[in-house]
Amino acid sequence: MNAPVDATSLALSRFAVGQPVPRKEDPTLLRGQGRYTDDQHVPGEVHAVMVRSRIAHGILRGIDTDAARAMPGVLAVVTVADLDAAGINDLPVTMSFKNRDGSDMTPLRQPPLARGRVRFVGEPVAVVVAETAAQARDAAEAIAPDIDPLPAVTLASDAAAPGAPQLHDALPGNVAFDYHFGDTAATDAAFARAAHVTRLSIRNSRVAVCAMEPRAAIASFEPDGERYVLRVGSQGVFGLRGLMAQVMGVPVERMRILTGNVGGSFGMKAGAYPEYVPLLHAARALGRPVRWTDERSESFLSDNHGRDHEMLAELALDADGHFLAWRLTGVGNVGAYMGFAAVLPATINSAKNMVGVYATPAIDVATRCIVTNTTPVGPYRGAGRPEGNYYIERLIDTAAAEMGIDRVELRRRNHITPEAMPYRAPSNLDYDSGDFPAVLDHALAAADWDGFAARRAESRARGRLRGRGIGQFLEITAPPMNEMGGIRFEDDGRVTIITGTLDYGQGHASPFAQILASRLGIPFERITLLQGDSDELIAGGGTGGSKSLMASGAAISEAADLVIERGRRLAAHLLEAAEADIEFAVDDTDGGAFRIVGTDRRIGIMDLADRLREGADLPDGLEASLDVRHVHKGAPSAFPNGCHVAEVEVDPDTGEVFVVRYTAVNDFGVVVNPLIVAGQAHGGIVQGIGQALGEAMVYDGDGQLVTGSYMDYALPRATSAPSFALDSHPVPARTNLLGAKGCGEAGCAGSLPAVMNALVDALRERGIAHIDMPATPARVWEALQAAAA
Fold first, then answer.
1. DSSP labels, 69-103
2. In this protein, which residues make up the domain named Aldehyde oxidase/xanthine dehydrogenase a/b hammerhead (predicted)?
């Protein structure tokens, strides 16, 4: 039996919900003791190297593999013919929607290896497996696919133009999804009677995800159970198990996914990738585990990219600056195939999130997703949420300048007020909570908005242009999904939380433990987290869409209620009392304990677990365990919101932009761990700064990527980010047990418009009313020169 825990060692209040508890995993990771996919090894493993197309578009006539097969150490060369012969399927399209005309969206499945045609540089065409990585690499270089080049197209607007090269016979005009949402007639009428209309053509640049850990996988096959095992970085093993089972053509119980530590993803590692399929096939064919780790240069070509939209955003206002309607039209680039959630950012999520915090009577969204000869696009930190907020916030600043209305006042005139809650938005979503005017006022005060004139004068004295920008945002978290909440009392006195979300850098272990410690009074240091084994799960929505705390947190909380319910029955028997006389309470002195009401007779929850392990004498029908496996049915989406204020300086001689001051006030509802939330905000803000000022994936006319290394792709550095001033203005959500709203993607949603609005504010005195991302020094300098001409 565990020894009683005194108040000084328990100190539950230190780990309660709302406390800034350091991440449990940090000591392990900082010592280099993390176990990422490439750190793992399986006995008898062999090595795989991908053979990728060096041509963006062409007919694949054949692949001569004879020389490679004869090279030392080579065990196999896998092509699509081998996969087809084995009955292996193409990658599934995980989402299906209706086109504007009511027809079903065409499911454009990607083959695991190129079949008949290559469609982007980096597309895998074969896999070499050898005893060593060096042998596999040498043999891969000996394979030269026979490809007849075809014209390539890389920009979505070019691919949608008449006469553009056609990538897929099933997609006339290269249109993968023709999306429409809103009331066209009402929107058109609002624009017709508007006193003022603001229009902006906006390019949302393509970005590389650049996770610290490249993609890697180890595929095994267990012949006894006829079961595949895939060790791989992912965002959720439960969903990936289903996808990979579907591709391999086996029941889900014959597929196991194992994920250890994950070095970043931001959406990119959420889905199934083609490389995993031939690895599994080779593992079964050879009877040996097959490992693969991507090179960084290959990651630029093969990891799903993010963003890449060309939009016309329009805002109609009356003479007093009240919004009448907005309209969004344009195209989104999905790359050569429709990867995981590829169509969401340019369509549904933009439509939902562009409404933001503003009362707008009518909206109309008509966008198309277009295939091109580029790497497939997938979700990237926000997946349409930052995009939608960026469009409306740029429109507001532009309209304010055009109409001579103060930009702060224009926002205030159009805010959805707290009295309007719950608010039915024109996106058909119901906002449950929020105080958007107060968040704006809080942010302006924290940013010393009224003191800006002095700071601008000081910048001018040094020859710099200075501007300030607002990014007020609201985003919609992912829709409801079933999520597991498992609680297991281990033999060694630890308690394990089991849930289907997955930590790829967020820091789940501490906040999840805080919830459980607060609910059950279990010592924080005894709580562990298990997420990355599909065999342990009965449900799992994975991590994405800023929903993890709401999903797993609610699942853990509900599971804790079930533990208490079961514990009351067990304690009643052991304490020889009626179940109705047993109460459960948590305090710093006793932790969690069951006691007979009105007496001092009690048994602590950890002591109860020990008694059960030791074989307590129980009557029939009373289960000798506190363990729970529960499925939370999923709370509705929440609406995190906030207001970011950025100040930038521009060197007019070089075009270089410096973010010199940054303030963010966020409403994330109930915050379980403010330390981790601040870290999430910091990361998202820096990613937004990176896209705003430097990052862009650029292709040449032949479809070759010209920004395929860190010599050419401008990731933000430590010097790119200022010190952040963060504050909170929480309004608890009313739609989930914790009152939380999610925070993982909000940094990007606020920083993109705040930084770009600040930059345009700085440049406006030189006659520049708009500039697209990325605002590189060259682009800013050229705009200044053109304005001066």
1. HTSTTEEEEE-HHHHHHTTPPPPPP----B-TTSP
2. 31-151
CA atoms within 13 A on the CB side of 155: 12
Rg of the chain taking only CA atoms, in angstroms: 28
Taken as a whole, the chain contains a residue count of 789
- Give the whole-angstrom CA distance, residue 388 versus residue 530: 35
Question: Class of the 7-34+479-632 domain?
Answer: alpha beta
The pLDDT tens digits of the residues spanning 36-93 come to 999 999 999 999 999 999 999 999 999 999 999 999 999 999 999 999 999 999 999 9
Per-residue pLDDT reduced to its tens digit, 169-189: 999 999 999 999 999 999 999
Q: In what order do the strands lie in the sheet with 465-474?
A: 465-474, 641-650, 657-667, 724-728
Tell me the DSSP string of 428-481.
S-EE----HHHHHHHHHHHTTGGGHHHHHHHHHHTT-EEEEEEEEEE--PPPP-
Structural contact between residues 241 and 727, judged by C-beta atoms closer than 8 angstroms: no
Residue 214 vs residues 88, 156, 170, 232, 293: alpha-carbon distances, Å: 26, 27, 33, 11, 7
Domain boundary assignment for the chain: 7-34+479-632, 417-475+638-789
Eight-class DSSP state of 109: P
**DSSP of 275-311, one letter per residue?**
THHHHHHHHHHHTS-EEEE--HHHHHHHS-BEEEEEE
**Which uninterrupted H or E stretch holds 726?**
strand 724-728
Instruction: Tell me how crowded residue 501 is: count the other CB atoms within 10 A of its CB.
Output: 29
How far is the C-alpha of 775 from the C-alpha of 658, rounded, in Å?
11
Q: Let me know: does 194 contact 324? Beta carbons within 8 Å.
A: yes
Residues 6+ away with beta carbon under 8 Å from 451:
none
Backbone angles phi, psi at 72, to 5 degrees: -55, 135
DSSP of 5-21: --HHHH-GGGGSTT--P
Q: Distance between CA 343 and CA 384 in Å, rounded?
A: 10
Identify which of 516, 527, 530, 529 has the alpha carbon closest to the alpha carbon of residue 492: 527
d(CA 692, CA 699): 19
How far is Cα 395 from Cα 311, in angstroms, rounded to an integer? 12
CA distance 610 to 589: 19
Degrees, nearest 5: CA angle 443-445-447: 65
Match domain 417-475+638-789 to its CATH number in 3.40.190.10, 1.10.760.10, 3.10.20.310, 3.30.365.10: 3.30.365.10
Q: Is 182 helix (H, G, I), strand (E, B) or coil?
A: strand
In contact, 302 and 216? CB cutoff 8 Å: no
pLDDT tens column, 380-438: 999 999 999 999 999 999 999 999 999 999 999 999 999 999 999 999 999 999 999 99
Listing from the earlier edge strand, what are the strands of the sheet with 628-632?
527-530, 495-498, 483-489, 628-632
Residue 11 is predicted with a pLDDT of 62
